[in-house]
Amino acid sequence: MSGEIEADSPRYLRGKYAIVGVGETEYTRGSGCTTRALGTRAVRAAIEDAGLTPGDVDGMLSYSFNDSTPSPAIAGDLGMRLDFHMDVYGGGSSIEALVGIAIGVIEAGMCKTVVIYRAMNGFSQVRIGGTGRGRGSAMSGNGLFSRGIGMVSAAQMFCHSFMRHMYDYGTTPEQVAHVKAIHSEHASNNPKAYYSKRTTVDEVLASRMIVKPLHLLDCCVETDNGTAIVVTCIDRARDCRHTPAVIQSVVGRCLKPRSDMHYQSGPISTVAGRYAREILWPNAGVGPEDIEMTGSYDAFTFTTMMQLEDYGFCKKGEGGDYVSSGIMRLGGARPNNTSGGHLCEGYTHGINMVIENVRQLRHDVDDGCPVGTNGKRRHTYDYCEGGCRQVEGVELSANLGWGTPGMGSAMVMARGS
After folding, report:
1. For 267-302, how does the pLDDT look when each residue is reduced to its tens digit (9 = 90+)?
2. Which entry of 132, 133, 291, 321 is 20 to 30 Å from 397 by CA?
3. Among the four given CATH numbers 3.40.47.10, 3.50.50.60, 3.90.1150.10, 3.30.540.10, the one describing domain 10-127+223-237
4. pTM of the prediction?
């Protein structure tokens, strides 16, 4: 794009901020510790990854959904004095929205460097969908329209959009099963992935039915983990340890006309990405055709498919063909979820896909390639099982966050200099 960008335009912020540190705990089922401990470990790891100290970070944001621990406790455990903090209620689609908030509060002069984290015992403590310790059953808010008719779990609430997509466009469960198969290939090259075994399309279709038409292997893995990222301005980023992942554009929790009963306003087979893309691409100055890799929220196989379609990576109705074509595979034209994502690596409400894309843009993912004398991996780009998962020469990525069919967030990042 040419010409001067006015200071009051969102495009003015393009390239002014970056993610400079990432950190995570092990993805487990049974962490044996509190979310306070998980959050503290992840935040410390992200700050150290950036080459900073706790005293260099003066802002903190978190997801406060389910069993999370609030920011003041994490900051106190690390000896941090904050000038700004906020714990935002939310799960899926939170991370991109929180990156936007971080940019805003730094731009407003409220702080200089922000760490964003999510800590959850998503398997051993509070499991999504109503099971596990500490989950209430009262009907309020959106639950008035869902819980009373048996729509409690995410699968129950979201599957109607996929069913309608199948009806409208002839999409098949076999097509979207490729999402799991491809993400499992990527996970087999990820030493951190909880599920690292490669899975075939036939194995997905043969797994037991959970909520029609979703099989067990169409659904994400539940894990315990802490994850964190550090955001700061580009001038500070250049003094940090790694090549920065420079933020080009962000969309936070964009909605369809209704997010609860979204099927009453616009096609049920269209998701919030249809509206978010009208912010994402103009502000980034690029289009989907320019993106070299994606991190698309895979709570289920079909959520990846529907997002990629509605953000414009393929024509409406061609999502099934897109995800089953091989384009998302390592070595394909536009790899997706190269860590294995929520289906295989671990479930983090979206932050692990951002962490993965940051490492990809650094050209320094942790895979099976040998480490040289300089401490850097010598990537082979052969993508054989147990080997490389670095996307060769990647410069531009997109993350697509999913809250519900009616709510989504997104972010475009570029490799810094």
Report:
1. 899 999 999 999 999 999 999 999 999 999 999 999
2. 321
3. 3.40.47.10
4. 0.93
